[in-house]
Specification:
seven-stranded mixed β-sheet, 9 helices, about 35% helix, about 20% strand
Amino acid sequence: MAEPGRIAFCDFEKREEMTPDQIAEVFTKVAGTYDETWKARHYKDHVYVAEAVADFYPGDRASVHVLDVGAGTGMLADELWGKGFRLMDGMDPSHGMKVEASKKCVYTNYYTEFMDGKRSDCFATDAYDCLVVAAAFNTGFIPCAALPEMTRLVKPGGLICFGIPDSRFTEVKDYIDRLTPLMELMEEQGVWELVDTKYCHDFYDNANPGNIYRYVVKASDIDAAKFIDKLGPVG
């Protein structure tokens, strides 16, 4: 296996050859240096997502129940905490990331699970007001199949907000000609409604443009297979 730091921060395509548990272990190995590595590379995805979420909730934010998917060390939740959000849970498969995140004291609960599209027994339908994702739409992380499960966890009228660099749509095999059609199909079928997108030119390394997406959930408990079965083959 390649050096963990390369897999975590640079050679994303190496994860195509790895199992989910192996990927989680890579991030456990780099957890102690994760924040400083991304700060040095001017990582901003979490900042942009936090700003978009705060804009959606202009009033009392302390009671908004948030699930942070691909939570990592809690960089996004830390930004949200600074904006007044107080009721946040994290979800990430890496134990090492959980240990680092606990030092920030921003999560009520932290679940060491993958958001892989399977229905999770840890979460009730409509459990959250808001679901957020930063930096987890990437190879080996959140697959297309996870989108219906993400909507299941958010109450109708609630917000799902995430950032995706443009390159992911053409570099991640699972996303090529699949992610955009799925997002559009879910809107056509009344699962969620796109509020807006915000273009950002510098997700990290003062480059890597992409968009922040904000969706309002319309129908939470849906038949996931109905949507996934319509996707083409991976790759």
